[in-house]
Fold these 4 entries.
Entry 1:
Amino acid sequence: MARYAMVMDTRACIGCQSCTVACRTHNNLPVDMMYNPVTTVGPTGVFPDLHMVHIPLICMHCENTPCVDACPTGASQRRDDGIVFVEEKKCVSCKACVMACPYGARVPNHEKGTVQKCDFCMDRVDKGNVPRCVQTCHQKARVFGDLDDPNGEVSKLVNGNHVVRLLGELGTEPYVFYILGLEAQIR
Amino acid sequence: MNRNVDLEQEGIVVKKSCCYFCHQNCGVLAYVKDGKVIAIEGDPEFPTNTGGLCCRGNIALLHLDHPDRINYPLKRVGKKGEGKWEQIPWDQAISEIAAKLAAIRDEFGSEAVATAGGTQRTDDWARRRFMNLFGSPNGFHNSHLCWIPTFMIETAICGWSPFEIDLGASRCLVLWGQNPGVSSLPEMHHLTEFREKGLKIMVIDPRFTETAAKCDMWLPLRPGSDLALILAWLNVILYEGLYNADFVENCCVGFGELFAHVEQFTPEWAAPLTWLTADQIRESARMYAMNTPGNIQWGPCVDQLGRVSGAAIHARALLRAVTGNLDVPGSDLLTGPSREYITDEEMEGNEFLPEEQKAKQIGSDKFKLLTWPGYSKIAEATKKIWGKAPTAEWMCEAHPPSVFRAIISGDPYPVKALLVSATNPVNSFGESKVVLEALRKVEFMVTCEYWMTPTAALSDYVLPIAGALERPTITSSYGCTDFLLASQRAIQPMYERRNDYNFWKDLGVAMGQGEHWPWETVEDAYFAKIEPLGYGTENYDEFVEWYRFHFPERQYQKYLNQGFATPSGKVELYSSTLKDLGYPPMPEYVGPVENEIDHPELAKEYPLVLTTGYGFMPFHHSEHFNLRSVRYINHEPHFQINPKTAKEYGIKENDWVWIETQRGRIKQRADVTQAVSPKVIVTERGWWFPEREINEPVLGGCMESNTNVLTSTRDEDCDPISGTWANRGLLCKIYKVDGKEGK
């Protein structure tokens, strides 16, 4: 069984938001919803000594899932391959998962009366494709794959670079890893 | 692409189409069923984007069938700009337009009909062909602001202009006023890749951009001071002995003159003009000259300095020459035009335009290089070496601001009709007040468009045009490179949209040009272009299906055999072409159009330095404001201001602020950021508001936040060589928008 993970290489990300728009198109989201905003930090410093970094956010697909734990109906689930998803039919939009997620990765869909989130495009992944945001990224700043495949790019990046997981201290063990460039580390 | 769309259903055909929302023309795979595009994705096999698509590319399907699109020919029935239209058949539109143009020609001469063009995404050779056959030299274009002055001046010096950079073997890349991080993402990807392998990247830009954040050296120069920096680089390179002596001795003329000429331009001289330190100037010059082979990549800013542009471009061309960074591996490549397929220039029919009509081209008496006097000289020299001339469309144009003024004043003669294709002049040409006055005044105007823009709203006819997925595309970088990339039509145009090629052809046929338009479809025309390549395909679609690209084998140092396409056959550091046209043969220093040193009184009233019109995601020029799915990313216009300055003026993040120059004022919201110097204001380009009333007097609010209101197109502010007008390095003042004036 695969363990799916994504690496965000902030050394390459330029904050163009292609992923955000591609994701919205793929998932047919209304304009007020997004699964993966790209935040820009900076420019920090004082002109002209500046740094800027872009941090793409997304559901972290945690190993320890406060959202799944909080869900009273069983709509929020985690697959064996690590993909966390919402089974829409079971969701009653109580928003307990929204409160539980420390990453703010869950969004209520007011039109449908459900809570939705990134599911690593499991429709595509199950057919052997990469998530839409990965496919559309000009900069190849997102890398997706199986962490257990030692020859895969994901495990090479995770093992070969200094990677961080967001809010690591919470112990949620996310499967989204960030490579922080010099620009980010200087901060 | 939508997860609810089943791509494995029967009957789907995958077409090799392309994106059309900027000049990159990224490859797209279009999934077509029953004549409808049901999904698109980036083509992983396309060499530039390798599957990537930016946020604009991703909304192509929303663009294809957006409720605001113009889908049928419209004829004005109310007063001009009133917004009352009647839907008419294409045949009627074409015959009525032809009759009106014929009447204008009979009364005022062919030159009384002008055309305005926009991006390369249209078949401008067809527009040119129509105009040549019609007899008017007054086609014009936004191209003066975008690479064309660079192309022509570099060609005057070096015999062609590098459009291809050989990054793989390069050691140093200078991005001059360019931000590929928002404007050419495929290129940005390659930069990231090569930088990991050791390529040094330098960004020269007053703003800390997406690209500056990823480079090895950033030079935040004073807006508009590029010329001073380049001259000082030349001084450092020549006087520190960092030039390529072999290349200079064997391949250049005029080195002695140049050596003497640049002695005065020391880094200490340039430091106060550029706001850089002399050390920064030395260090950056050394970085370029000591890391050869290297490249200087074009960015549009230097073309947009107004009267400084020509000299700055000239001086920059000399940097490449003295360092020998021309046509060797890893340097800027002089590819020349294709000798294998038929170029755009050969499709234009320039031989049909009589000499006496060429002589009437508006602006050719003042700005000689990008008009017939200069173009003829360049074409003569390039034909000797390359066998072909540069594309005349873009390179040989009437001077746009002078045409607008001619419409208003009738001087030098009346201009009565304007045919607009792929541009929205009121937002995209300089000094918008003048442009708007001209558009309101011109007797007859036809606009080919996707949307009802402020310009279209003032037209007599608005014609629906096919977009990316509805038409094929060939990219050969304005006909100035030797390779090509080709894409198919995914579907036939929806509703009654037509290709712009068909518009010019149909209009030409209606005006008696039938024998000169032998190609029924645009695919036929493209196939005529590429048939000599000898791929053995039966038609254009087959070529795309099986080959899609043509990249000739790269040849380096072609000058060793053929020389350079200049009158002397060498790189002319002392330019005979410019001298013959009446311009300085070596770049003389001139200050920015408006600056605190030459204009101290003006600087008292307008104390801040303005640079206008930077590109930003998710828009392209004045496009895409209609599309909610990208507009949400950047809903309102913003300008950049340093926190120190903002505090001084009592301006907080997101406040509406007036920005005013001698020409007028606009309002944008404050983006308070360290990205710019405390002395600099930078505005976003293109803004208009499709959500408002598009008709008179509101006209989509096209003057309210439109940065071109601030720019200058006065003859004395334009570059004497090329005629480009001043968008950068101006002086402005700012003040908060009064509560009552706010929105």
Entry 2:
Amino acid sequence: MNLRKTNWPVQILIFLGSLLILFPLYLTITIALKDPQQMAQSVLSWPSEIHWENFSKAIEMTNFFQAFKNSAIITICTVVLTLLTNSMVAYAIARNMHKKFFKFLYYYLVSAMFIPFPIIMLPIVKQTSSWGMDNQIGLIFLYVVYGLSFNIFVYVGYIKSIPKELEEAATMDGAGTWKTFWKVIFPLLTPINATVAILTALWAWNDFMLPLIILSDKDQATLPLVQYVFQGQFSTDYNLAFSSYILALAPMIIVYLFAQKWIINGVTKGAVK
Amino acid sequence: MNKRKLAFYFMAMPAVLLFFVFHTYPALQGIFYSFTNWNGYGDWDFVGLKNYLNVFKDSRAIHAYLFTFKFAIVSTIIVNVFSLLIAIGLNSKIKGRNFFRGVYFLPNILSILIVGFIFNYIFAHIIPQLGEDLHLEALSKNILGDPDLAWIGIVIVAAWQAIAFNTILYLAGLQTISTDIYEASSIDGAGKWREFWSITFPLIAPFFTINMVLALKNFLMVFDQIVAMTGGGPGTSTESISYLIYKGGFQGGEFAYQSANAVVYFIVIVVVSLVQLRILQRREVEM
């Protein structure tokens, strides 16, 4: 395969296709850096004079740092708690699949993947608000719990491929089940933990529906929710709106630029398992 | 030994109980309320199947189902065709392969809501401008403002984003195929077209199945794109089922009625997914 020469027709098609992805992003950046007069002259061209103040205005209008903090707290707590708890549940299930009870748990959790969210949507709003969980803590809880369905599916498949001998050796040395899990199994889960962490982080960071229906306090709004709430006020000023979009998209894009290969490999490997 | 077994229960039970409390219990509640006339507060009575009968008689609900299915089927086909083509492209011998993989996965990390807002602008300003410059009547107005065409705009945005993830899954599938097989087939004189239908496609059949099922299921649940781009409009022409349940349930005081709609929706999704899985998996075996 490596001996073959570059496939030019494919190269050109892939290049043209990538423009369809990059063009809307280019457009977003140029609009965010212009003022209305420059927009009137030409929408597509690179700004002749860069208006950085759009960003500071957008930060003020949307209370960006507050929303950023909210999104960051929710995402980090969700990812950490998901890794710690979901892998543990999966371990218990994977090592006891021969027992009816754990087998039932597996199918119970995995089949919930096919329950559409709207069936839960109305009651869960009532439930979280009457329990005082219509806040960040409630959201983190829901993300960790709702992630179980998919994560159990991924983790159990992976744990089954880990030879039991390793744990038996640990048991010989006198380690209990808990110690075996944390000292032996959890470190072995690193590749699959990475995949779960990436997918969970993308979900918690970008999710719009749960914050929209659960959060009651405006100060707790996440980044996507803030964009939605301020949409009406932006409608007169596209430049401010687009600066705000960039601010909301930038954190994930920056993470992606640094961890790109890792993220794609994680997702690819997660898919093959 | 007993202590060992007990530990497993302690590992699994707290999370499973929470799952029951925050997932299964609300789902059961939703089913329960669907048989009442509760509007979200105050008293209620049992009304039997009345809500369900009304869902089937409600032209707005029926329209939401038709729109959602039209949207989901078209998007699933488009996404899978393009993802497969792009994955094959990204798997062949080209320069900057890793760079292009990075670019094609990029939409997957962006918020659907914000992507919707950005495309809103493109449909409202960029494309009509282009249409005028090129004197193309068809492009010169905002398709999101046209009740007959707005759904196409939503398909474009949904596909633009979903192709990223499906491409990566197909790419994972393609990498499981050993290059020896291709070398053997090219020695036998198989052309590119033949190679695709006789080798590539059958060998990635399981990936095709999972991509089709996941894509259709996700598109049947379309919500963020609708909120960002049309709010269900113009009129109710792009109202998806989940958007209708959200709007009717929270803003229209139709808590019980939309719960019944959600139960119908649940049954539809499970049936569609199972049928699809059955058909596609049978195809896998035959190949």
Entry 3:
Amino acid sequence: MIEVRFHGRGGQGAVTAVRILASALYLEGKYTQAIPMYGTERRGAPVVAFLRIGESRINERDLVHNPDIVVVLDPLLSRTVPVTDGLKEGGLIVMNFPKPGNEAGIGGRFRLATVDATGIALEALGRPITNTAMLGAFAKASGLVSLESLEKTLLEQWPGRLGEMNLRALRTAYERVTPPVDVSGIQALGKRPQEEIFSRDVSSWRIFKPQLDEGRCVGCRRCYIYCPEVAISMTQGKARVDYSSCKGCGICGEECPTGAISMIQEVL
Amino acid sequence: MSRPIPLHEIGEKEYIDPANQACQGCGGAIVSRLVSKALGDCFVRAEVACCGPAFMNIRAPSIYVEVFEGAGALMTGISRGLKRIGREDVVVLGIIGDGGTVDIGYQGLSAAAERNENILWVCYDNEAYMNTGGQKSGATTPYAATTTTPIGEYSRGKLERRKNVPLLMAMQGAPYVATASVAYPEDLLGKLVHAKGIKGFRYIHVSSPCPTGWGYDPKDTIKVARGMVQSGLWPLYEVSNGILKLNYKPKELKPVREVLKMQGRFRHLTDEEVDRIQGEVDAFWSRLVEKDGGNIF
Amino acid sequence: MRRWEVMVGNKAIAYAAKLARVQFISAYPITPQTSVVEYLAEMVASGELDAEFVNVEGELTAQTAALGASAAGARAFTATSGPGLLYMHHPMHMTSGGRFPVVMAVIHRSVKGMQPDHSDMMAQRDTGWIMLECENSQELLDTGIMAFKIAEDERVRLPTIFAGDGYILSYTAEPVEIPAQEDVDAFLPPYRSKYPLLPGLADEARRVQMEQWGIGQDPQLRWRRQQEAMEAAKMVIREVNEEFYKWFGRRYGNGLVEEYRCEDVEAFIVAMGTIASTARTAIDRLQARGKKIGLVKLKSFRPFPSEEFKRLGAMVKAIGVIDRNISLGSGGITFQEIRSSLYDLDERPRVLGFHAGLCGKEVRVGDIEMICEKTLRAAEGEEVTPLVDWV
């Protein structure tokens, strides 16, 4: 049996991704199990979903704790989420990351394949929903499922234009994903502490972040008052962003009357 | 009546912790933050099932009880209990969703208003059961698509009219009733500060758009909320001892079409349906204008 | 000075609440409980009792408001019957889950009609409330006072029901001794919550509140803690029962069960509430005829005194259990729990079940004599059938 863990953020379609994979693999004669992990997590919040692939009906009903493969749908997730926890030695990580695997800050006795799924999704769908691109990358990097089965399942899920758009994301990522590289020599980046009840780092929730042009800030306080997160404070008449509390919703940028705040894509 | 608080007069001190568990661009999270800024540090907060408990960043003592239907009762008990232990100085606040207010919680709400319980009920209205994925509530705007009023060959979305709970509360004789919107923090904070100084049942119903459920980009929460007010879909008014005051009264309302088309839940509307909504909004608005400054009874 | 009055069960309950100086009462009418809240309303109106008296709009609110008042740190009380108790079911879980020591009087009314049986309370069996059953008005008054002391004990912190049968108790008048207020005050000091819902709460209190929310912990822990509190309550109930005796000269068995004429018996019957009262006469008559049968009154239904039944079961050859309830598709509830309590005995007595008094069906002394005789035949080794009977 092969076990897979998907890391994503609410709204990126991790649950849909495991379901599509489960269907595609069943088409190829495998038995599968797609498990969502529901909680009170919201759009943008880190989420996980699991997939089991076997030769006959799978009876285990617990979650996947020692995956063979980890799929990371968002490049920023690994900052706050321990994505390699429990990953088997020699296991595979397929990660949405715009640079080669040895620059992702992930180290250990694993192999790492990367693909710029956010870029591909923005190109193909116009929105940073990366699940279908990551399915393409998964198919190529793991060799567990054929592109044809995935295409067939995808079109059944979304007939018409939406399906075509997702198909493009799937195929592009299949072509562009890097071959897995050995990352056993890489020093892993430290993780920030999580699981605080009242205050948490939500920086991994965002794709875009607000950038303030101090010269244009007139201190009107609109961004400050409309921020749902208390991520903006006023210092000497100017707005200041605390990025660890910012989910990148973009309200501040939208409401700034002088255009002093622009939303830029987060880079690593 | 309330006095709007200019943005530059709003205090710097925060009474909630940075970041929360809500979706990006959550209107309810803005309500939660602004309410605590208006009330300061002498309140306790009652919570029932809704997105609210998931915000999890409020510093004030909170009690979360999974009685969806029981917000009015819970606040009644807390308020009376605090009176008994000599702490009537503490404001008993509920930040309750529209389901817990206008649907399953309505019996308790109405009874608490009847008893004139010394509580402050803030309904943050995202117009559906967003915590469970967006099912229709009695607060949902007509014609909206929700997960239980989907669009299909035999369905054009939500059929029923909104239950107008602020006016119902006013008709019950509550000392202070107001509507507000996250897009108008000056007005909202003014109303909260005013309500804080009143003893008895106070009800503030706040329009809190939900990007996830309404189908718009999170950055547009304030824009959508503002559009609702400017088009008359969400009039801002208050009723103090029976006297109604319109707090936002432009010379001319903007057409509803603009704000409707920003939202995925209205994507299916035909021109006739938009006109029908416009007609209903205009009719209600003209009645509000008629009553403005006068007694609603 | 001795004070007494001939009063109905409902008034005895109101006296218990008054003597306990409850600070919050949520009131909603339902027959046959209604006059409990009417008596309390009069006491508040006349100034005899200084409490928040809230006329709520339904039992769901009655329970939830009592929960809220208790959370704020006030001593809270409510009362209900039958369908009203069913309507409270949801918030009752919250009251016990939040560990709020609300006390509630239940005047039994069947869930299938106006007349009493225990189906209303049994439907709340697993809500995590302590449940104490009474057989006369005096016991209602006394148990009501004890209920607050048990519920508020730091080792327990669980809401508590004290209950009696509708009509048979609620509207039957009998002489009741009324304890002096100053003695009750000494026995039951004012409630001081260690965890009130207030700004500026200490860290420990905050932690307890978080635990009540179930945040950041083993998800089963709240259930486990509550079960531990129920176990602890067995000891606390016995202690409170003894302390009550020292102050007021009355006690109810050991607080959990009461053995009536169980010395040298071959068998005993088990009953709760008013049936236990009637059963005393039946036992007296049978023992006068030389029959070796006694009565065990089950007073604490929750926590269930399994250990007591194991101890008592070892001394006899047969037990007849009278259930004023039924778990449809399964059987008499106390019948099964008592049988289960005996499982670890090397030599188990026969256990017979009897359904009696459901929907208020009259239970007469003769009925109980018949139950006793069947139980005695089983004790003598006779094969008696059926195992479970309707009386």
Entry 4:
Amino acid sequence: MIPGNKNNRDGLIFSLPFLIVFTLFMIYPLMYGLYISFFKYNILGSSTFIGIKNYISMFHDSKFYSSLWHTLEFVLITTPVLLALGFLMALYVNSKSPFRKAGENIFFVPYIFSMTVVSTLWAWLMQKQYGLFNHVIVSLGGKPVGWLTDPKWAMWSVCIATFWWTAGFNMILMSAGIRQISKEIYESAEMDGASYRQQVTKITIPLLMPTISLCLILQVIASFNVFGQVFVMTGGGPYGTTRVLIQYVYETGFQYFKMGYSAAMSYVLFIIILVSSLLLNKLGGKYDNQ
Amino acid sequence: MTTSRNSAGRILLRIFELFILAVWVFPFLWMVLTSLHLEDEVVAKTFHFFPQHPTLANYIKAFTSTYILNWLLNSIVIAGLTMVMTLIVDAPIAYAFAKIKFKGRNILFWMVMAGMMVPFQVLIIPLYLQFNSYGLINNFMAAVLPRVSLPIGIFILKQFFEGIPDALEESAFIDGANRFKIFRSIILPLGSSALATVTILSFINSWNDFLWPLIVLNDTEKYTITVGIANFQGSHGTQYALILAGAVIASVPQFIFYVIFRKQIVESIALSGIKG
Amino acid sequence: MKTKKLLAMLLAASLATFSVGAQAQPETAAAKGPRVVTFWSLFTGGDGEFFDAIIDKFNATHTDIQMKTDTVKFDNYYTKLTAALAAGTAPDMVVIHQANLRNYVPNGQLLALDGYLSSMNAPLDDFVAAPLNACKTDGKLYALPLDVHPLIMYANTDLMKKAGITELPKTMDELLSDAKAIEATGNMGIACDNTTAVYKAYTLTRLFFSMIYQQGGTFLTADNSKANFNNEYGIKALTALQDMVNEGVTPKGLDYDTSVNTFKLGEAGFHFNGVWATGTFESAQDLHFTAVPLPGLLGKPAAWTGSHTLAIPADKASDPQLVKDTLDCMLWITAHGEMWAKAGHIPTRTSVQESEAFKAMPYRSGYAAAAASTVAPPDTAAWNEIYGTISDLLEYAVANNTDPKTALASMEKKINEIIATY
């Protein structure tokens, strides 16, 4: 575009620092992981090439299916809720409420805490016997809830902690989007007598679609990678009903020493995430304004 | 749900807002409150919302019987190095994506984005062996390097740089500047708010990283705070007051960082060209 | 303006970090000082404090050797250890659960200690035979046992009195009826965790495992190639676990922390746990309890046991002096087992078990006898996965009150599948 500059050369030079880092610490280990996945791989001893056997075993492994399902369950619950929460929060911090600044801080701050801190805190709040939630429920005359120990609740409990933790990030992205919408559109709508609800549904949401579709993809990727909260809060329990795929990958690889199998499963997860994101991107493509 | 002109409705709405805000901030307060309890009061026959004997014992224990100050310093060093290197590595390529039409640009961009989708578990063993062969195990750089490519950061920067008018670059070029000069003297200064955002995200990510630093940093003195406080969790039973005191300590620097950069975070993402 | 300030801050930050980073590089240049033995431990929480005290004492009483420990939370310890062994960066001494030795010994990761120990005239005959033999593979010793920590029974003596119980229960029937008597006083009969929350419900597995052996059975077949619990023994054991919930003496969905704390607060009559809980219970005010070897609830006494062992990575063989120093540390630590016994664990040296210091400690000498009837997990690399899987399946069977026959059949199928993959 700028005459006299060589685009290909400059593109390469500007990409170079990144390319070096990316090749060394992403492409190379990724390829090595792929290589491992074709072996009965023992990191401490000898390894045997077994072709695609690891991939075949997966199809007979009920634990693989159940873990994959729990991951999907987590994605399906958290994605819509976190998008909706993020959107509502973004609307709120862009409203005329006197507390909107406080809201912005309060909603975002949990995001800066580490997974360990958030999970430990929520495991404590939800502890069946001594946790605060059940103290409140019991003092109101209810029966204690097995937040982390009842299979009906456990996954939701992990999700609730996740809502608190990460909704603020979506809020920031969506709030940024909302602030890009020109004030005049709202002003003229108001002059035409449009209610707040109409402004939101007719102006904000349609114009925010590109941001929402970006948030959607980021959220799906993040949710598929869920592990830490589950590991700390429920340990995958009760009886494996919250064990997510990455936890199973971790267990097979590092506790059961089946690293080939572990690598193969994480590759399958990678492909699933990649395909889902591509599909979502295609669906969201009509909003893409690049 | 109209913006009600009737004031009773408005007051109710404000009360509702305050309630929601209180709910959201509450877990954090509970963490602090619990950490001020004696361990025996936390798990006791009778429930006390406020500590009966407010105590700093858990904090004193954390500071005197662990390396928590080392851990805090290590985290600051590691997160600091990570954020500086993230900018060095990610800003140029984001500029290239935004402004330079070079061969393979789209493929490269999608590769970067795909990098975001790789479950980290699959990388751990290869990365560990790799860092070992460089002799970097137990070195802070091992905790830093795999974290400096931040796809979301590249994305934010790219979006922002795209929003900088081409005309600025072109006129600079006419004045005799080359691309490197343009990058340095126009793009980077104009993009400072987006750079701040990426800095902050990279700091938060690095600070909160757990499994990788645990594995590459051997000495207890070299742990990051996130790794270090995990050791507060007993192998046979949880001391809630102590572990939450650790959690509070681990979160304070993060919180200060947030307060300092709060404006940049909120405003810069808003400016970073995520278009509505 | 804002930009400049920000850039300046970043620059300052980066300079500061680089300079601090440079200081943080490995030092250990002081070659003239004492020789250092590095050690990774997995003892956190209460255990960790007792263990650190041992190390501190070692360092205070030695001038030639100093020990330096790094602690890793149990969940992630083996991940880190495995990576370090693979890369040859493991410390001089490592702690490994006896059941996990099988993952490292066959791959040649650990040093056979026999030659070194005999040249040092190490008092191997002072070690209790069972835990020492558990550290051997093909007749070679790969680790020294630091402790044994069997499953035992805790009983609240105040509540027993209140419920009119004069003798500790010896059979499952007695246990259940005593527990009911305690329920009648408004307390929990048996605190036995049966669900996973922050901790996995391993107590179920440990009890089930013990009960199989109490009846004369084995968990796996003799060659460790198949499950061996889908039979009468298994049915009786699983039924016993389910009865605790069905008879209303153990709440459904009891997690580990609650189980321990209920007993600690004096609100439960009986409690099953490893010996490691003793230290916690002792520190509780107003709790009067006794700790005894696990009774032979379904037959003769037999109890699951674990054992922490100390081992040396194989690549340290290149430095005989270091190996000798490390062994000195290991022998010193085991010889001071009474300090470690404060955490509740049973020492592995006869001299310690017979020492006045140990005998004077409450509870320990009582249940130290349990060591005679303990059963270590089967010696197979598949054990970790079996243990984790069985634990989930038992939890499921208890929570849903599954027909024992059906439950055991599916457990057997699952375990056989797992073994086949190793």
